[in-house]
TrEMBL record:
Residues 104-116, 133-159 have a biased composition (Polar residues). The gene is LOC111603571. Residues 89-103 have a biased composition (Low complexity). This is Polymerase delta-interacting protein 2. Signal peptide: none annotated. GO terms for biological process: error-free translesion synthesis. InterPro entries: ApaG_domain, ApaG_sf, Hemimethylated_DNA-bd_dom. It comes from the Eukaryota. GO terms for molecular function: DNA binding. GO terms for cellular component: mitochondrial nucleoid; nucleus. Residues 271-396 form the ApaG domain. Residues 86-161, 388-411 are annotated as: Disordered.
Length: 411
């Protein structure tokens, strides 16, 4: 037996109230005394421990939007909190930024690769750049499936010098209902890929795609044959009254998944919590741009910030370190992220965005901090968990179904 909800959009914010069915509030007239009415959407189902099937309707537990599951992914989740049992308590002195040393070692692949690496960072436009050509001592290797802190750094100390072992978890590729996009605190055009124009570095984006963890799925059922508004819904799914769920994948969905697997595939998820603020990072390899002078490798990364505490915090600054396989370490500092300084409150505790990075080397890794300010005036540096940038042999040559060219180029 599942429970039921009233579901509201109120001043562009979500509220969940325990009631009998799922409803959405829709505007009638600005002049009306009662400017809204309730429309039934569906009925919540009991959560499953096993995988959800293609076509399952759901509500997002964190962001509250309506969506539908396309297909699952299996990812290795590296949760550094599981290896750090020490309780973090606020102090008068803010947490210092990491030192130049990398906070962990990753298996960076073939160390014989050569070239002069250069990192490019988009969306989070840098206000200052610094390169350290003597950073090669941060490079190292570990066993597959583990991340290990470097022995020459004392500033990070994030896992008490223990290996961070990945735990396999299920994530889902989903479509977001376009009616809900204006009301969620997450980019709805975050899934990007490289186009087939070799002469430039343009990005394409598919609006309304997201990656959702199994635990964030709140399944529901609906009697509506068209319960979700998205341009790809009818192209990928068809209604089947005898099926459960009653929406089954078409051949176009399978073909689309197979064709675009290289840039859709997720492999690693990294998590770490500082002062009750949890940072989750998911990196994706996007492909390589070949030029007569060099090869440029591109990645996107999705970041979610979640406030687990009772006091509101605001993101003020970012501080990134980008390490390339050939030994270059670059620093990026700037205000906010993607032009915003979001507030994470108990009512709206999460914010999610996506950005991009490029290297002139097939692998590297990134880490850093977000400078956060709590409502009581306490400021601290929230650690961004280190994550690797690994290239793959596959590349995307043509835009997928539903892709739209982005207007801006990545620098």
């Amino acid at each position: 037996m599942g429970f039921l909800l009233h579901f509201f959009k109120l001043d562009k914010r979500w509220q969940l109230l325990p009631k009998s069915d799922i409803f959405f509030k829709r505007s009638i007239k600005k002049q009306a005394v009662s400017p809204t009415k309730l429309a039934e959407v569906g009925r919540l189902l009991e959560a499953k421990e096993g995988r959800y099937d293609t076509g399952q309707l759901f509500l997002h537990r964190i962001f509250g939007y309506r969506g539908v599951i396309l297909f699952p992914w299996t990812a290795r989740v590296y949760d550094r909190d599981l290896h750090n049992t020490r309780k973090q308590t606020p102090t008068a002195t803010p947490t210092p930024c990491p030192t130049e040393a990398s906070p962990f070692n990753f298996n960076t692949g073939n160390s014989d690769n050569s070239g002069t690496p250069a990192a490019a960072h988009s969306n989070d436009a840098p206000t200052a750049w610094h390169a350290n050509k003597n950073a090669t001592d941060t490079q190292g290797t570990t066993a597959m499936g583990t991340a290990k802190p470097a022995t020459n750094t004392s500033a990070s100390n994030s896992v008490d010098a223990k290996e961070v072992k990945g735990k396999t978890q299920t994530f889902y590729q989903v479509l977001i209902d376009t009616r809900d996009c204006p009301y969620i605190r997450a980019q709805t055009e975050a899934v990007t890929f490289l186009g087939n124009q070799d002469s430039n570095r343009s990005l394409y984006a598919i609006p309304g795609l997201d990656y959702v963890a199994h635990d964030d799925i709140m399944p529901y059922c609906s009697t509506d044959k068209h319960p979700l508004q998205h341009e790809l819904f009818d192209k990928f799914l068809s209604y089947a009254a005898d099926a459960e769920p009653p929406f089954v994948g078409q051949d176009t969905l399978k073909a689309w998944q197979e064709k675009n697997h290289p840039w859709l595939d997720m492999s690693d998820v990294h998590k770490e919590t500082t002062e009750n603020v949890r940072i989750t990072v998911i990196p994706f390899y996007m492909g390589c741009r070949e030029t007569p002078a060099s090869s440029v490798y591109w990645w996107r990364y999705c970041i979610r910030l979640e406030n687990l505490g009772e006091l509101s915090v605001q993101l003020r600054e970012r501080h990134w370190r980008i390490f390339s396989l050939s030994g270059t370490l670059e620093t990026v500092r700037g205000r906010g992220v993607v032009g915003q300084e979001p507030i994470l409150s108990p009512r709206l505790p999460a914010f999610q965005y996506s950005s991009h990075v490029s290297l002139q080397a097939p692998s590297g890794h990134m880490w850093g901090t977000f400078r956060l300010e709590r409502e009581d005036g306490y400021a601290f540096d929230c650690k961004i968990p280190p994550f690797s940038l690994e290239s793959k042999p596959d590349d995307v040559s043509t835009p997928p179904v539903g892709g739209a060219a982005a207007n801006d180029e990545v620098d």
